[in-house]
Specification:
It contains six helices and three strands. The protein is an alpha+beta fold and 102 residues long. The chain has one domain: Orthogonal Bundle (Arc Repressor Mutant, subunit A), CATH 1.10.10.10.
Length: 102
């Protein structure tokens, strides 16, 4: 088995919570924090920590605004985040394909 795809996996994305966040955001232009929390069944603190890590990596943009006089936090993938997510999915598909050959 070729170890190269494993070495190329992005450690920021590879954690299951962050991978789930990126997958959800890849399917939607943007999601509210509360939508992500419900969809992924995460606590506020856990989701906040993962979003902060993804934001620091440049993968997720966070926008704070108001809707009907209530605070609203939304998240979306940045172009770099979409590229990194696509690359990660491609690497995982390559690993699976190589494993099936064994």
């Amino acid at each position: 088995m070729n170890p190269e795809p494993f070495l190329q996996l992005d450690r920021v994305i590879h954690e299951k919570g962050r991978l789930a966040i990126l997958a959800a955001l890849a399917a939607s232009p943007e999601l509210a924090f509360t939508e992500l929390r419900s969809l992924l069944q995460m606590t506020d603190g856990n989701l906040t920590t993962h979003i902060r890590t993804l934001q620091e990596a440049g993968y997720v943009a966070v926008t704070k605004s108001y809707r009907e006089q209530r605070p609203l936090t939304t998240c979306s993938l940045t172009p770099a985040g979409r590229e990194a997510f696509t690359r990660q999915v491609d690497l995982l598909a390559q690993i699976v394909a190589e494993t099936r050959k064994l």
